[in-house]
Amino acid sequence: MLQLSLNAESPLPLVDQIVSGIRTHIDDRLLRAGMRLPPIRGFAEQHAVSRFTVVEAYDRLVALGYVTSRRGSGFYVAGRKPLPAAETQSGELERAFDNAGVMYQSLEDAPARLKAGVGWLPPEWMDEEGVRRNLRALSRRPDVHATTYGTALGYRPLREQLQIKLAEFGIGVQPDQIILTHGATQALDIVIRTLIQPGDCVLVDDPGYWNLFANLRLYGANLVGVPRNDNGPDPDALEALLQEHRPKAFFTHSVLHNPTSGNLTPAAAFRVLQLAEKHDFLIVEDDAYGDFHPGPATRLAQLDQLNRVVYVGSFAKTLSADLRVGFLACRPELRARFSDVKIVSCVSTSEFAERLVYLMLTEGHYRKLVERLQGRLADAASRTLRMLERSGLKPHGEPKGGMFVWAEVPGIGDAACLAGDAAESGIMLSPGSIFRPQQQPSPFLRFNVAYALDKRLERYLGEALPRFAGKCCKD
Amino acid sequence: MLQLSLNAESPLPLVDQIVSGIRTHIDDRLLRAGMRLPPIRGFAEQHAVSRFTVVEAYDRLVALGYVTSRRGSGFYVAGRKPLPAAETQSGELERAFDNAGVMYQSLEDAPARLKAGVGWLPPEWMDEEGVRRNLRALSRRPDVHATTYGTALGYRPLREQLQIKLAEFGIGVQPDQIILTHGATQALDIVIRTLIQPGDCVLVDDPGYWNLFANLRLYGANLVGVPRNDNGPDPDALEALLQEHRPKAFFTHSVLHNPTSGNLTPAAAFRVLQLAEKHDFLIVEDDAYGDFHPGPATRLAQLDQLNRVVYVGSFAKTLSADLRVGFLACRPELRARFSDVKIVSCVSTSEFAERLVYLMLTEGHYRKLVERLQGRLADAASRTLRMLERSGLKPHGEPKGGMFVWAEVPGIGDAACLAGDAAESGIMLSPGSIFRPQQQPSPFLRFNVAYALDKRLERYLGEALPRFAGKCCKD
């Protein structure tokens, strides 16, 4: 349902406001090609404007090429207009963003929508009060500057604290091998732009983290998916792929893999590292969800000690996504390259935010907070598993912790159209195809257990699954 | 003077601490190829360690290839070791970072060093108290979340406020044409990665903003400098360059140009836009320093109304560099491309920081703050001009405001070696060559008037200039 905020008091005519609002929805792919615009009468009543105004706005959108009119049937979003040639990046750019609409939907401030497929926890699960308390404490300290640039690598005491944190994972590292970044995403971005050139082959998890895929494509990388099994990346499949491809790097999740919540086993880790050695590629280990894991887990960086592995972490999921504090750890000469790129692309990260994370880590809040979240997630996960089974879905394995359940919709060719249907009912689902390197069809959905227990989801699944049973959903 | 922080209580042996500390200085180019390490005895006394420890550390650095030993003369930093082939980006990467060492020095937390060449104001000039007060106010508001992701474009009320701010500059824009970014640097970065491909020709100001040059090089752009004159980019020179080159874009500063503090005139603006139209290239107008300008000024975006111009702004220089709040404004279909790239490369920016800037803007603090800074800068600039003239330098034109004075060192071929000499006396200068697209020699220096009145600078110039007079300084 399209809801624009129109303002009759604005100097901008209502027609212009409608045109601009719908255009933005189309540009952001909240309205996608082929979707029907609301009927003129319905739109006029909902927004308390005259029907003539709506007709004029729709006509203008047709003239602009954003909308097509089908006689007797209504107005539909047109296919996306390409930019003039001089402004288009390679064709890869278009492909890179096939799924950006999912992220817009996730980030959109739409409290009424049930975000059952997002990759983070609801605000009410987070320690808002702890963050605010430390914010206030920090803003009272005379030695803290909130107005100047941070240092190139980021706040040193936090890097020293990360040294201790990584030592607990069995990863030995000096503070000067660590760079603080604008979230884990910027850490991955720095690695990519330093080491990947157009046309390079890059290995990724299949399924894996789709925002990473989009970024790799933006740099012209050629993505090759390494199938995951219950032990991590499948070493036999990896070995077979290496007969054909000469990858520059392998980007992978070891602990609480996104989207399956599976873990890497020591045996699989050993074989992956052996193959990396033999075929001389770098491994980038993204551990954004690892802190949710209860008890010890196997990380590639623990075996390899940052020789061939670049380790990426974040506090976005556990502490605050807003503070945008992530980091990478690597061997010294790579660190020097990476910090050059950090400076050139963003100058520095916020030392104030880094000090805040440091306070939360050192005052014991962090550990308690994470333990509390682990318990709450475990409870929500087991209830989500039961709900999904009741609804007729087939959860994949037993999640090892974390916020995701990866579940198959039996008898469906591709869950993407189920997700499209759910969106119209105000429920945001993450279909398996977006987690695949080439967006291949997938019968899976990723559920976020912190959102999945909302009654609306079970009700929707109960109503919708019979409609989709046996359908391939590919047109 | 090399100062490491050694800790005798640390489990890490002192030798390891020295090796790691010096290695980091070399990797970050605080120690550069050819520079001499402190004599063993001096280092030992300064750091209160035994001479054997220093000898062992220096020997280890020689073995690692970081340092060379010259018989009878001491230890010198070796040329930088190349990375193994598999890890090297194109040769452009190395060139892109020729000057990154300047930024490391600028960002380094070295209170004893006089940063007479940096591109921002000292912390004591900034409204620390205002920022902290609003930080506390914000952290008490129950409707503000400090733990969740912001929206794709950034906090909407701030974008609406920017619409008003840009309207004061005569630039008409809708909030949905604005993207909030992690500083102006990320805004420039987003434009570059969306529109520039390896091998593309890109026009830049000569002299101009060197961190931008490094980023463009990182993407493989071919930089062509457009000479600046007192009216802005020289239109005749630009026209001549366009006979030979087909640029994709022109990145330029219009108001209080960095490094000369000159302004664009309406006539030059008109000719630049005419040429952009005729030769079909985009203009990216960086206005990071524009708010320091007292009274009206000419901007390309004002004439062009964001048709061919992408406008970039920031609050880093006036309000807080730490908050990392910048923005870009552009026409709608470009905005859709740019926000895709923002999501893919950093997911979102900090809404908390954006709310803070919004508060500062709407409660009247910002305008008062900027007016106060303008007055203080004007006073410091006129005193800096007199000091530089007393010292025998030739300031370039009359600065129109802002924090920079661009001054020539008469009779010198390249001011870079004067800057190298000054660094050894604890004074950081910015030599003209780093502001040139190919780092061509330049007899100019950029001074920051907020730092330049420190007595140490006048004393140093008085002592050093006679030593450098008549020297080309190129070896």
What brief labels describe this structure?
Aspartate Aminotransferase, domain 2, Arc Repressor Mutant, subunit A, Aspartate Aminotransferase, domain 1, 8-stranded mixed β-sheet, 475 residues, 14 strands, 43% helix, 4-stranded antiparallel β-sheet, alpha/beta, homodimer
Number of domains of chain A: 3
- Head-to-tail CA distance between termini of chain A: 23 Å
Biggest interface goes to: A-B, 87 and 87 residues
Binned strand content of chain A: 5-15%
**Main sheet: strands, sense, barrel of chain A:** 8 strands, mixed
What would you say the CATH architecture of the largest domain in chain A is? 3-Layer(aba) Sandwich
Total E-strand runs of chain A? 14
**Shape summary of chain A:** globular
Helix and strand content put the structural class of chain A at alpha/beta
Secondary structure tally, helices of chain A: 18
Looking at CATH, which topology of the largest domain in chain A would you report? Answer: Aspartate Aminotransferase, domain 2
What name goes with the CATH superfamily of the largest domain in chain A? Type I PLP-dependent aspartate aminotransferase-like (Major domain)
What are the segments of chain A in which pLDDT stays under 50 over at least 5 consecutive residues? 81-97
- The helix content of chain A, as a percent range, equals 40-55%
CATH class of the largest domain in chain A, anyone? Alpha Beta
Give the strand line-up of the largest sheet of chain A. Answer: 3-10-9-8-7-4-5-6
Radius of gyration of chain A, in Å, reads 24 Å
Oligomer: homodimer
Chain-averaged pLDDT of chain A: 89
